[in-house]
Amino acid sequence: xxxxxxxxxxxxxxxxxxxxxxxxxxxxxxxxxxxxxxxxxxxxxxxxxxxxxxxxxxxxxxxxxxxxxxxxxxxxxxxxxxxxxxxxxxxxxxxxxxxxxxxxxxxxxxxxxxxxxxxxxxxxxxxxxxxxxxxxxxxxxxxxxxxxxxxxxxxxxxxxxxxxxxxxxxxxxxxxxxxxxxxxxxxxxxxxxxxxxxxxxxxxxxxxxxxxxxxxxxxxxxxxxxxxxx
Amino acid sequence: xxxxxxxxxxxxxxxxxxxxxxxxxxxxxxxxxxxxxxxxxxxxxxxxxxxxxxxxxxxxxxxxxxxxxxxxxxxxxxxxxxxxxxxxxxxxxxxxxxxxxxxxxxxxxxxxxxxxxxxxxxxxxxxxxxxxxxxxxxxxxxxxxxxxxxxxxxxxxxxxxxxxxxxxxxxxxxxxxxxxxxxxxxxxxxxxxxxxxxxxxxxxxxxxxxxxxxxxxxxxxxxxxxxxxxxxxxxxxxxxxxxxxxxxxxxxxxxxxxxxxxxxxxxxxxxxxxxxxxxxxxxxxxxxxxxxxxxxxxxxxxxxxxxxxxxxxxxxxxxxxxxxxxxxxxxxxxxxxxxxxxxxxxxxxxxxxxxxxxxxxxxxxxxxxxxxxxxxxxxxxxxxxxxxxxxx
Lengths: 230, 392
Known about the structure:
The complex is a heterodimer. Chain A is mainly alpha-helical. Chain A is 77% helix and 0% strand. Chain A has a single domain, classed as Up-down Bundle (Methane Monooxygenase Hydroxylase, Chain G, domain 1), CATH 1.20.58.220. Chain A contains seven helices and no strands. In chain A, helix 2 runs antiparallel to helix 3 and helix 6 runs antiparallel to helix 7. The radius of gyration of chain B is 22 Å and the shape is globular. The interface between A and B is large, with 40 and 34 residues.
């Protein structure tokens, strides 16, 4: 108890703590991503793996709540300080949490199709997307850890490519004669991979975009609608 | 078009590199320590001046004041009203310590004033909660967090004031402790403190007596002392908040949602360090409004703040002598007794919490109840009762 009391009073940098926790969330998200893809590839979701993934998701959710709470405490105790950084953090932590959810969704999609997804015509495309997203995880983590704006731009560029790939997979699936039992899981997997990549891109936009434009790096303007810079 | 991105975690390191250099930090720490010690000196000097000023008023003034405060309920309401107006129980209790040390007020008559100061200080966080009044859901959470402190203090006074009047247990036990501590060498700050305070206070009082008649000199000394008291308290609080905010924030995060005893200790330590119970408790209100804390979690922290705030009166007493220490210790014992009686027993503990929730629901439904509560409890009722007593 005494040690707990002493420990409670050690001096820490709240922003550093929050960012460390955010990076932990990303690490956990990547772990979940790898496990869920493996399960999808093998067409087999073992109970132990599912439980593990769900437990990690709970950890990710707890981490998000802890960061949000810490942000409110920080802004209450030190109003006016670090407001922009805290608002960015509030946004990107949501993206990190959603990544965990979409990884679970990949697992759930794999459960729909009892046979392994390897050997299917769309497997190679999805596998390429998986590798790209995996690389995106690493880059996003590094970009956030080092506050690397250039790397942030790279993440956003690569994310655009992955999104286009995923859209192509879904379009091809829609045009194919595959039975729905096979087509639907693959479409869902492609969709979820797209969302995971998009959320990684959103996190990188926290480095690249002004605060009020977070997540809007890919906004497509309607023809004739001018960019007002807002 | 991309403008400069918001600064993120590690980028802060680069931009704060100069600010965080060890040499600069040491210099700033040393400066802040010097500022704090200077403010502490001024605080202790102010206490000495106030005590000296009251002594100059003479015996008849002391007798008048003692008879005025002989009614304990009047003393109680004076404590509530005075503290509500100045919004600082530290200031009120420090002045009471001065007056007791100067013989202007007896310990017996001062105890209800101290109890009233406990109630009056909660007006600050109640006023902070009114900042959320335009948002019903937030206000419904913020107001109970503020008034749970009020209800605890009111309940403590309702139980302990009659007990004190019947037994004088606070006066007696504080007197016993004071005698033991003052003579035991445990708080043997008498000599060094007097050595650094006496020359200055003597010089100032002497100058005032040369300039003005005795009563006038006394008034000037008290007015100057009160001004210095408020200024030094404000400054000490400001310095300590600046120095300790990071640690306090971290400690709050690490103690939240854990055992209530940790919340109590947090409240004691933070308030003792920052020298302001309002500074501690008013931070809790917006956190509760945001839903981060619950009233049940806030409660032990506010009780800790009640104890932590007694350090200021004890510090003041070190400058004025054992009689002052008696009333300061009475303040501490009152708060400890209140916590032991109310917080440690579940059914009684739930009373202020339930009342706070009820009041919060009422106030959220109709805001006039909130205003009526604040004005009535802290200003109207005490003011009217004091005036009525004076008239009759």
